[in-house]
Amino acid sequence: xxxxxxxxxxxxxxxxxGEGSSEVGVRNDAAGNDAAGPAELSTLSGVAALGAPIAQAxxxxxxxxxxxxxxxxxxxxxxxxxxxxxxxxxxxxITGGVxxxxxxxxxxxxxxxxxxxxxxxxxxxxxxxxxSGQRPALWLAGATQGELAATITDAKLARALDGLHATLASLxxxxxxxxxxxxxxxxxxxxxxxxxxxxxxxxxHALKTAGLTHVSATARVAAGETLAAGSYAATVITTPxxxxxxxxxxxxxxxxxxxxxxxxxxGTKTAFLKKREDDAITGLESNAHFDAIRPFFGNLxxxxxxxxxxxxxxxxxxxAWHWNLGGSVTxxxxxxxxxxVDPKELLGRTxxxxxDASNWRYFTTIRLDQQGNATIxxxxxxxxxxxxxxxxxxxxxxxWEEADDGEVFTAHAKAFRFTTLRGEVKYAIxxxxxxxxxxxxxxxxxxxxxxxxxxx
Length: 456
Description:
Helix content: 10-25%
Structural class: alpha+beta
């Protein structure tokens, strides 16, 4: 009967891991002896990953009871250990192994307060650094049984999880944990497309952008420091249509303010910012990717311009002109403090509209009536103001379309609102215009435009 029960248990444990997971590790007591039979043991399993599974790596577990266990990860990064319920809490470390064809650069760590799931990833490593106040490898090397028990508590785990949220938010583009996901105890698959695994990829990329390594990140977290001081994130709006993604502003290790625009279609763009002592943005230090930035209302929103040559050309038969000036807007950005609103809130208001990020006086004035018609005045032109009927058409689902010489141009718009510290309500409008089916992924200054309008 005992052998039959052991066989059933072994089958059950094998079902707990994914394809390629390792065999169950062996538990040793404080004296180093395998002192418990299968019927007395429970399972601790998890995945070791860093954006790819960490295969054929050594997993070592030390517990407050003095017991230990070890195993090797499978091709999917999975592992399983056998421990007694009285052994917990325990700390885990992974060394060696291969991920994405490269040897694991440094050990990673995790903890377990009870049987179940205990993943090992760079994010769990950050949590251990937060809990222990030391680099995880140094802490685990010197931790006594009592120190393991004192460090791995529910209260410290909860604080470490809160700290991880803040740590990720301090990085470029403000990566975030998937809803309801706990890095240590939630199951996931170490493969592309899994939200948790994709986050590990994003974390690695964000560290490189911030000029950090994971080792330096754990040291900062252990010391209670943020990873990228002064991080700011916003939603970028650009063409085609109202394409959106996240951008960030953060301080690198040299204290420089870095603008980071990871455009998934046109490639990542960066620049160093000029700031006043009050943190207000005054311009750009470099023009590799941008030649102008114009923030509004303390950088709640703004526009970015890319270099191109002045090329004035007629826009329509009404005498209005489109000027492709240096700094022609290629991106608009909206902070998380801005709230998208129904465009009907714009009726009866006056706006200044900018299509150039480098010339502070380059704008048109837009006055909206209660019927949604706009009277537009261009200070660059001597002609009388002209009226655009149904100004709200681009706000509709699908936007507005018009055919011209066999090509279809579309216009899309969104409206946002915020309230100033004085209680004043302000609005911003972002409008994109371009070909319906552009042939190139590059920004076409002749056929694409982005306008930012700010309420007065």
